């Protein structure tokens, strides 16, 4: 891992492969390692950038509240540091929200968009309230409350569930709290996607217990040119449960 200082944080990232730049953004509350099973099928086609978002993995964060747009600025700073003008950007779950925020703020830097197990709508009031309640619980009891609640919903595969539970527990309290609040305040992206003029690829499992596959179908309704890969018997973690298929779908960004 390499690290750069930007926006009052230290941002850690891994770079591998060669070809067109592709930023792979991990979901909540995880880090870049979720992509390990998939990148070996991608590094012959892409110059892969795998950041740890602020507060996760090897990256630090700030105590003040921040937004998805602030996190998008971190990614823009990483591209600037590497002298990359434009890139494909793909995100998993919360990483998809961040990819959408990046597309909203920096459309001129987008070559294409990948959404893996993600969705377009903003949080409804009850979900928003729930995220703030979880943030309070994490502040009081630690990250384990999120690990216990989320790991069984991420996948139905016991070995993978155990691995993910450990990964979540390794994340920082401040990062988990900051991300929960950023997700709660994110913008709706339906109108954004309908106006996109670059390739869009969607990957979603039909056994996703966190974001139902109907959300991916809604993206394709909003953007009819989007390509959707529906994965049978796959949960919320396609890049770990079906890495070859996920990689194949992301390669369709290059048209």
List the SSEs and their pairings.
Elements: E1 2-6, E2 9-17, E3 20-25, H1 36-39, E4 46-51, H2 68-81, E5 87-92, H3 94-105, E6 110-116, H4 125-141, H5 144-154, H6 158-169, H7 173-184, H8 190-194, E7 200-205, H9 214-222, E8 227-231, H10 238-241, H11 243-251
Parallel strand pairs: 3-4, 3-5, 5-6, 6-7, 7-8
Antiparallel strand pairs: 1-2, 2-4
Please provide a written account of the structure.
With 255 residues, the protein is an alpha/beta fold. It has a single domain, classed as Rossmann fold (3-Layer(aba) Sandwich). It is built from 11 helices and 8 strands. The chain has helices at residues 36-39, 68-81, 94-105, 125-141, 144-154, 158-169, 173-184, 190-194, 214-222, 238-241, 243-251, and strands at 2-6, 9-17, 20-25, 46-51, 87-92, 110-116, 200-205, 227-231. The protein has an 8-stranded mixed beta sheet with strand order 1-2-4-3-5-6-7-8, with helices on both faces. α4 (125-141) packs antiparallel against α7 (173-184) and α5 (144-154) runs antiparallel to α6 (158-169). The model has no long low-confidence stretch (mean pLDDT 97).
């Amino acid at each position: 891992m390499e690290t750069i200082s930007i926006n009052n944080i230290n941002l850690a990232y891994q770079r591998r492969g060669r070809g067109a730049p592709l930023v792979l953004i991990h979901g909540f509350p995880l880090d870049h390692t979720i992509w390990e099973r998939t990148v070996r099928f991608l590094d012959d086609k892409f110059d892969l950038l795998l950041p740890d978002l602020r507060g996760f993995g090897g990256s630090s964060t700030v105590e003040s509240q921040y937004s998805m747009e602030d996190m998008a600025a971190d990614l823009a700073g990483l591209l600037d540091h590497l002298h990359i003008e434009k890139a494909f950007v793909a995100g998993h779950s919360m990483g998809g929200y961040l990819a959408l925020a990046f597309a909203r703020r920096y459309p001129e830097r987008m070559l294409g968009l990948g959404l893996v197990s993600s969705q377009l709508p903003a949080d409804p009031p009850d979900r928003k309230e729930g995220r703030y309640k979880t943030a309070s619980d994490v502040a009081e009891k630690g990250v384990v409350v999120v690990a216990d609640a989320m790991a069984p919903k991420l996948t139905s595969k016991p070995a993978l569930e155990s691995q993910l539970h450990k990964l979540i527990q390794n994340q920082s309290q401040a990062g988990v709290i900051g991300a929960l609040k950023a997700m709660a305040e994110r913008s709706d992206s339906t109108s954004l996607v309908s106006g996109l003029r670059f390739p869009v690829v969607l990957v979603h499992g039909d056994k996703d217990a966190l974001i139902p596959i109907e959300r991916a179908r809604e993206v394709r309704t909003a953007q009819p040119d989007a390509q959707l890969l529906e994965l049978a018997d796959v949960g919320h973690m396609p890049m770990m449960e079906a890495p070859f298929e996920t990689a194949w779908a992301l390669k369709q960004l290059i048209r």
